[in-house]
Structures are given as structure tokens and as C-alpha cells.
Known about the structure:
By secondary structure, the chain is of the alpha/beta class. 45% of the residues lie in helices and 15% in strands. Strands 1, 2, 3, 4, 5 and 6 form a six-stranded mixed β-sheet that branches. The chain is globular and about 60 Å long.
Amino acid sequence: MNASADSEQLLFEGMPARLYPAAPARLTTYLDCPRRYRMAYLERPAPPRGGPWAHISVGAAVHTALARWWELPQRGRTPAAGGDLLVAGWLTDGFRDGRQALEMRNRARGYLERYLATLDPKRPPVGIERTVSLTTEHVALWGRVDRIDDAAGGGVVVVDYKTGRSVLTVDDARSSLALAVYAAATARTLHRACTRVELHHLPSGRVLAWDHTEESLDDQLRRADALAAQLALLDTAYQVGMSRAVADEAFPARVGSRCGWCDFRSSCAPGQSVPGREPWAGLAS
């Protein structure tokens, strides 16, 4: 081998491994169901997805209204103005019919306006739908935070809006890998302390909060890093080539009640053993 080849070999040997790029949703999709992960991120062409879900339409419309509310002039930031924004951006995909869509729009307007009445229009957040990011040994993580608020002592708080029918608990905030990643990424992006995460469930008006420690955030980042390293190997092995039988073993289906909500249920034989849900079944009452 000549000197040039020797230098090139040393250069490649000394180069850092390429970071695995991922939003938290990619990691949590795998944790929920490796088969769904494969269908969503690896199979090309991707299997057909199911139809739209009404609760997704509601969530999107509410999130948009909450973001645009802060763009209004301060005097215009009234609860009623937020309701008007919701109506203007309402989506009708996934509902049983027009009557159900209208009923849900009125219900969502009610809980949105009640929520906005608890906010101080004179104190805008530090960030609204702000993209934050960080890197670890194996992964480049990023995500978009619904809202970032000031906190006592100069720090900030990550706020995540929820509009579904699920009954949330403080444990949901504590154990969430995504929220922990958002907090750590917010701290690194804004150069401000961020250990508190909050789930704001608008239909019930409940706020579920958890105060992480630096150690608990580090634990979650190590968890994300280890998972990313595993996925990098799995992704490469799949892309190099796997038989269907090997791929099914490498990416097993985790059959459970969530299969009824899966967008890829029609392409997953194990998942079809669970009854499918109606597109409007996830609406909050």
C-alpha cells in the first residue's frame, strides 16, 4: 500500500462515526412496535396508510390556533379570538359526518377558550413551535416544542399540548422519552436550564408536570443514545437486504390494543387480529 493509501486509511479510521439523525417520534415508534417502525421508516415503497383520524384533525387545528393566538396584537389576544382562529383553521377529516365535525368544533372551541382564559396575554412564551436539537455519542436529536415558557430562576419549561381522550397522569410526563429529549435539547439550544416538563390536557384543563433532575435527563439521553445505536445497525441491515422472514423476526409486531389505531394495520397480519377502530373513536368527550 502506498503512502497516499496509508494516509487515506488512517483518515477514515480516525473519523467519527456518522450520527444517527432522529426525532423522538422515530425512537418511540420503534419502542411501541418495531414492525410499525419498519413500515413507517424503512419500507420503500411504504405500505398504504389507513384513512385520516378525527382526533388528529382536532389536535392539528387546536395546535395551530394556539400558535397563531400569540401572533395577534396583545390587545387582540382574547379567548374569543382564539376560538375564532380555531374555527378558521378547522379540519373535517376523519369525522363520521358533518354534524359530528360541527359538534366537536364547538366542544373544542369551548375548552380552547377556557384554556386561553388562564394565560396572560401580556407574557408571551420564550418559544412557540420552536425547533430544538442536541447530539449525543450516536444520535443527532431534534424536535419541535409546542411552547417554551419562562421559569423561576432564569430557566425555562417545556409545554406539550394534548387534546385526545386519554386520561393522563403525572407519570406520563415523568416517563416520556420525548419530553425529556425536548427538555435537554431546549437547554442546549437556548443555553438556559430546562428540567421541568408539562403536559397540558386542554379537554380536562389538567396540567401534568414533572421536574426532572440533571441525572434523570441524562438517563433518558443515554436511553435514546443506546436505542439510536441499535436502530442504526438495524436500518443498515435492512437496507443491505433482508428476506421477508428475517425482516419479520428483526422487526416483530407487538400485538395489543394499539393495533386497532395503527395506520398500517391493513398491511400487518398480526395486527389484523385486533379489531380496527372507527376514525372518530379517539375524540375526547
